[in-house]
Hints:
Distance between the termini of chain A: 46 Å
CATH architecture of one domain in chain B: Orthogonal Bundle
Number of strands of chain A: 0
Order of helices and strands of chain B: HHHHHHHHHHHHHHHH
CATH class of chain A: Mainly Alpha
CATH class of one domain in chain B: Mainly Alpha
Largest sheet of chain A: none
Radius of gyration of chain B: 24 Å
Structural class of chain A: mainly alpha
Number of helices of chain A: 12
CATH architecture of chain A: Orthogonal Bundle
Mean pLDDT of chain A: 89
Radius of gyration of chain A: 24 Å
Order of helices and strands of chain A: HHHHHHHHHHHH
CATH superfamily of chain A: MetI-like
Largest sheet of chain B: none
Strand content of chain A: under 5%
CATH superfamily of one domain in chain B: MetI-like
CATH topology of chain A: MetI-like fold
Helix content of chain A: over 70%
Oligomer: heterodimer
Mean pLDDT of chain B: 88
Amino acid sequence: MNKKLSRNRTFLIIAIPVLALFFSFNTLPLIKGLMYSFTNFRGFGSYDWVGFRNYIDLFTDARVGKSYLFTFKFAILATIVTNVISLILALGLNSKIRAKSALRGIYFIPRILGGLVVGYIFGYIFTYILPAITGHGSMLSNTKTAWIAIVIVAAWQSIAQTTLIYISGLQTVPEDVYEAGAIDGATGWQSFKSLTFPLIIPFFSINMVLSMKDFLMVFDQIMALTKGGPAQSTESISYLIYNNGMGGGQFGFQSANAVIFFIVIVIISVVQLTITGKKEEQL
Amino acid sequence: MKKKNKVAANTNWPVTILLFAGCLTVIFPLYMAFVIAFKKPSEMTNDIAGALSLPKSWSLENFAEAMRVTDFWHSFGYSLMITLITVVLAILIHSLAGYAIGRSMAKSKFFNISYLYIVSGMFVPFAILMMPLVKQTAQIGIDNWFGVIVCYLVFYMPMNVMLYTGYLKNIPIALEEAAFVDGASTWSTYWRVIFPIMKPMHATVAVLTALGTWNDVMTPLVIMSGTGANTLPLAQLTFQTQFGTNYNLAFASYLLALLPILIFYLICQKQIINGVVNGAVK
């Protein structure tokens, strides 16, 4: 009995400082951010409470609206592109091929590289190499194509991990599933759609949730490739909060933006988790 | 022998060839960075060949210049220090927290809520913490590399605690009870019995935390810029304007920034891949 008490005490002695640390650098700044969102704080000097004015302004601010539109457009296309290519790659890398581990090793490289430097390297490709091949101007200087360039770079990096997760999913599919399917005459697309895919849905949901969340928070690639341009057409929410909140004197206003962004992330994560959770149950 | 023949006969050559061709999408940007980094600006003619051909002579001049301009060893030192300290502390603190919480979650409401509290931190985007954290770290005088480490320990806590508590579920409690009977305290049981058993999870945590901190731009950008100290990615951002149109110098610098992690990957490829996959799937 004594021992149990001392065990519980040890656990408490461990947990309390850890919780305090977590509170101080996660919850406390979150609360402060919420507080600042009700002020007209510019990042320095004095400030006043302005009630919900920042929130009302947010919904009428064209630049904020544009950044949400861009971020979602980007995140949705990037998620689709990443998952489709990754699934195809994973099927290939999991089939009877030569040099399997070498190929997997190469396809994984983009995951380990820093997004900023990768962005700079691709920036050169978009600015000099591609125009020389196609004869058109740089994708990055056109408001219609700049966001596509960012999708390409973000997907290039993210495909590495997504593919690996699909491969580990495919490895959980027992060989006899295919054999049974082959007897029933299921081949190719048919076999994938009705046999393989349903079995790897848990991995599909992990990938959807992970990639969507990452893409919604896109920052490094924007910083390296466009800095939000041209004409603010590629300003992601994170970039706008950083740029205008830290340097643009909109500390209070962008705090309100960050609060809304936080709520949006929570809603999307919860919706995704419930939808995919339901799908898994049905199986 | 017979089996090997069968495998060879079954090799799907079209897919193998397609996959090798697809590798070019990964290799091309790296190849380009590599050859441009070795060239002289005069070799960069306006056509593609000027950029993509092999350099006439392999000179390390650009690298030496890039190291000087970006103060490479300094930034490298900071990156290495921040990453190493973060990883070591993450393994020590997060595993302990995972143990205390994981072992008491089922019985105690306090620990159950603590678990949910920490794990729900995963949904908090950095964007909302960023501005208050800048103020907060400046107020208590840790707007430097140390503050960056403290932030990382908090940012990675939700994921790591979740990984550790998940892993602990598969470690039978009987192991600890045996040590108890021998009179060991909870504390010493943890370090002698549980901590070593969790080695596979330490590897996963180390890989995920290291990749995240090594490549991160945003946290050092907002917290330690202005101190004069840079991490490797931060140095690229800071000196980007100084490279101007000297792409050879810029690419030498990019390559230098990528090289440490590429070498690390060559050495521990298997552990890194396993770590990333385990972290996502578990």
